[in-house]
Predict the 3D structure of the following.
Amino acid sequence: IQTVAFIGIGNMGWPMAANLVKAGFEVTVCDARPGHAARFVTEVGGHAAAGPAEAAKGADCVVTIVPTSTQVADVAALIAPVLSKGTLVVDMTSGQPGKTREIAADLAARGVAMVDAPVSGGVPRAKTGDLAIMVGGEDADLDRADPVLRAMGTSIHRCGSIGAGQAMKALNNLVSAGGFLMGIEALLIGQRFGLDAAKMVDVLNASSGMTNSSQKKFKQYVLSRRFDDGFGLELMVKDLGIALEVGRETNTPTPFSALCRELWAASLTALGPGHNHTASAQLSEKMAGEILGGNK
Amino acid sequence: IQTVAFIGIGNMGWPMAANLVKAGFEVTVCDARPGHAARFVTEVGGHAAAGPAEAAKGADCVVTIVPTSTQVADVAALIAPVLSKGTLVVDMTSGQPGKTREIAADLAARGVAMVDAPVSGGVPRAKTGDLAIMVGGEDADLDRADPVLRAMGTSIHRCGSIGAGQAMKALNNLVSAGGFLMGIEALLIGQRFGLDAAKMVDVLNASSGMTNSSQKKFKQYVLSRRFDDGFGLELMVKDLGIALEVGRETNTPTPFSALCRELWAASLTALGPGHNHTASAQLSEKMAGEILGGNK
Amino acid sequence: IQTVAFIGIGNMGWPMAANLVKAGFEVTVCDARPGHAARFVTEVGGHAAAGPAEAAKGADCVVTIVPTSTQVADVAALIAPVLSKGTLVVDMTSGQPGKTREIAADLAARGVAMVDAPVSGGVPRAKTGDLAIMVGGEDADLDRADPVLRAMGTSIHRCGSIGAGQAMKALNNLVSAGGFLMGIEALLIGQRFGLDAAKMVDVLNASSGMTNSSQKKFKQYVLSRRFDDGFGLELMVKDLGIALEVGRETNTPTPFSALCRELWAASLTALGPGHNHTASAQLSEKMAGEILGGNK
Amino acid sequence: IQTVAFIGIGNMGWPMAANLVKAGFEVTVCDARPGHAARFVTEVGGHAAAGPAEAAKGADCVVTIVPTSTQVADVAALIAPVLSKGTLVVDMTSGQPGKTREIAADLAARGVAMVDAPVSGGVPRAKTGDLAIMVGGEDADLDRADPVLRAMGTSIHRCGSIGAGQAMKALNNLVSAGGFLMGIEALLIGQRFGLDAAKMVDVLNASSGMTNSSQKKFKQYVLSRRFDDGFGLELMVKDLGIALEVGRETNTPTPFSALCRELWAASLTALGPGHNHTASAQLSEKMAGEILGGNK
Ligand SMILES: NC(=O)C1=CN([C@@H]2O[C@H](COP(=O)(O)OP(=O)(O)OC[C@H]3O[C@@H](n4cnc5c(N)ncnc54)[C@H](OP(=O)(O)O)[C@@H]3O)[C@@H](O)[C@H]2O)C=CC1
Ligand SMILES: NC(=O)C1=CN([C@@H]2O[C@H](COP(=O)(O)OP(=O)(O)OC[C@H]3O[C@@H](n4cnc5c(N)ncnc54)[C@H](OP(=O)(O)O)[C@@H]3O)[C@@H](O)[C@H]2O)C=CC1
Ligand SMILES: NC(=O)C1=CN([C@@H]2O[C@H](COP(=O)(O)OP(=O)(O)OC[C@H]3O[C@@H](n4cnc5c(N)ncnc54)[C@H](OP(=O)(O)O)[C@@H]3O)[C@@H](O)[C@H]2O)C=CC1
């Protein structure tokens, strides 16, 4: 793979595409925001295309990283006619496995292979090329994608057939969201009892109550009232929706997960758009009648 | 503090009392099981007493570690008449903060101070004297208790006034139980989708879905179908009951925690007594229609 | 039974005691509010006592109807010394079965029988003597209580031994609260879909979705935004707490009920004190992002 | 409307089509089960067609009542080419509003109107022509459908535009399922406390805990252990899935409903296929450790 069409140069896509340029790939970018691709060429390098079809024409590999699978489907419809047999599509969106499989089947009918490769690590690790990447697809296709992915991430987890990377990513975020919510409720009970919330976080971290959230989020973004770790509430709720959708599609009743998604979705509704995902603590606070941290 | 009465030499109490003997305290043990105290003297050392009152008479410090606060109250009623002013009672049971505060108030009326000091780490760390101890009480009393506690544990977390150690311990276990349950449901969804559960655990551990359970329990005790980490399901359900009781007593509505407790309690009912707490995964499996791990 | 001591002449107790006077019983009332008993005598008749003990002295029957079992226990402690063997205590508080059983056991030790007889129907039916009464206790005691109860209510349901009336009442309110909450959520989904909420209520009432709430509450108190059916949110949350307490005491895990209680309790926390129970719809509305009824 | 093509003569469709024949419509039936349409002609009358397209050709109106919207879409694809402008499609399946709207849009592009008209009342009222029918669509189309519908049902509720009848039906079943589950849990708590479950049902029915389930299902199908009211568990779980899907599509977080669906779905998983919907009580019984009714 030498030439890469890169569709979607948003918060994540921009630094990831930049790493591809740096790694020596011949990159043509495009984005829905007018003028954005041209800015990328000026600031970073590579080529700009007016739209996905123009970008994809003649490319060995097309990378997509757009908000949801809905946009991926739009892009796929546009590029399908111009892709030559043997092109590899790498969807790095945190998308829906079911939709992704449909898109992949359509492309396969044209002799175009697709893999999914959603990422973990946020903007900082996108910049340093240090992302964790969960991939799904045929081994041969994943082998082909490997040099491209290694320019953007350091750990690459093969999860199974197409869509498996996205399922894994959504389920990971479900577990993350559940641990966050449970920890917040426990902090609220404890604080109302008279415990110090920051002290509680220390004890959790030294005990069986340790989670990624107790280590990296509670003090930093909740008790500090900063609520700004860079991962949006809408995106988390979208990912929980995907996780539960996988549960429904596989007929897997999971009461605890269902309540988890619903409370996160309720926090988005109650808070409105544009908040960080850690701000969801505020719905729990409202129900518990207690504000975590100093400014009670 | 030189002389210690040690009430309750069960799975945890025996090795903890043994560490006190080793540390040079003059220890008198007693236990509800007939002949148990005598066995301790033969095998470990110290003195045996026929009952709590006999053991406590003249002791500088009385340690209790019995199943629940109900037994602590029984013991307190027996020993109260024989305790001299200035004796220190150290309750290491994973008990109920509310009941503990009542017991402490009764003792305080007789000039006897009490602190609570539940432990974390299980039998292995009880043996090595390596327990984490969460303590509640007056600072002066905790200072006095310190040498005794340091003979049994390495990290001592001061959580607040009497009962605070027990509240902290119960809330820690709530977070632990929530992370376990959420992870199990995610593994079930993933496996039905086609992901490999062991692989999923690896990815969780490398991502934001990491919890104490993903690190120490899922592969070891669930996927292996061993279900034998040494912490009983009844004890976990008891602790969740305490956590939620603290929630009720402090008027802290917490929907996610409430469902968590109820599903754990339901798993105890469905499985019956005598199971390891990790076996609770089996109720989730029944509801999801999927068995985790090899023997599907 | 000829002479009745009536403890607690609040919103419910006043009209109930008045019906006893009307029925020809010799009634002595007392109340925690100073001067209240005297007012009753002036306006209704009977006798006033300075406190429970004075009222109860020599009475054939003592009726209690106070906020919670905590106050019943206080009253019982005051009157126990003055009750003669054979007196009958009739507790009409919506109380806690467990506490009631303790109180009854204490009184039984003095030869005093007790029955519980919580009521349903609110102030209107208290005035008309038309209450539904759920009773618990020994049949012989319930036979004795019968003339007294029939002066206040029309349907009397014998539920079992002491505390059974209170358990039944709390569980009835649990079912009622669950039907209310479920109906509100369904109306919210429907309205956001584009259905008319009032129309929906009509269809529910004609179909399997019919509940007491769809018949008597949704249009009347929620869609109208009046929220004033006369039953307070605090009282509903208290009753749900009792229902779930019975569940815990009997080791009966019930996930759906647990979430129901928690969401009702959360609505009380979020709304604050002094609201009607139907106002709990407002927490559901907040989470759903939709206001039911006209003023959207 | 004179000629009607009737697609799907299963448990519900057969008696409904029979009522159309009786009412004088010229009915052509077809069904996926081989020989079924011929049997209908022999036993009831009308005409048989080999498939949907043959049945629909030249019909004024096409009625569909098949298991789910998936089959409706299949049928629509088959009949679309043969329908003449002005034909009316009446989908009486308990289907998914979203899918139905898509199907209706496709048909509209060919000048074919569609209304949805799911029913309530079960097989008995299908036989007596006494169904309740919830309809969605344009008023003019509903006017046209009216004579056809009145041959099958007595109360017709206009709910809004296309899909609205199905949304209403699914939400009605959600409320019904919630009332059922809540009542079962309350009966379980009560019975473990010592109350008589049948007695409890009587009290609920006389109080605010009354629901359609307490009136028509608990004694008849649960306490009797008959579990055979004629409405399958799979169908209920399907309907709950539709209700929650409407919730998701309209961005309406509803935690209580989500848990309700999940527990019903879990009961289907735990029991396996082929059970009556009232048998879902058995999962609650398993979690509560108690069997309702006589044979404990
Ligand atoms: N932000 C984070 O921390 C993380 C994000 N992710 C996931 O990565 C994905 C992208 O996230 P992020 O970069 O933050 O999102 P952004 O919204 O910042 O970027 C998406 C970009 O794609 C463009 N776009 C949308 N539709 C099209 C289209 N049809 N053709 C071409 N371009 C299009 C958007 O333009 P416009 O704005 O005009 O719509 C935008 O510039 C999401 O799935 C997210 O869940 C994963 C891990 C972490
Ligand atoms: N096991 C573990 O991994 C952990 C346990 N804990 C907590 O520590 C506490 C003790 O647990 P564990 O040691 O496992 O329990 P055990 O049941 O093994 O030991 C309790 C001992 O106390 C005795 N006892 C009970 N009542 C009395 C009484 N009134 N007077 C004197 N002795 C009495 C019991 O005797 P008998 O058996 O005859 O009743 C038994 O020997 C519990 O609160 C538990 O939750 C905390 C962390 C980890
Ligand atoms: N049963 C009840 O009490 C109630 C049911 N409903 C709803 O009514 C609908 C029908 O239920 P019910 O009658 O019980 O279900 P049945 O399964 O008894 O009947 C459905 C019939 O449709 C046939 N069918 C399936 N696909 C096609 C197709 N593509 N073309 C032609 N025929 C087809 C089936 O054949 P085959 O068996 O070969 O697949 C079957 O004979 C469902 O949506 C249900 O939820 C609503 C209210 C009450």
Notes: The CA atoms of residues 10 and 66 of chain A lie 8 Å apart.
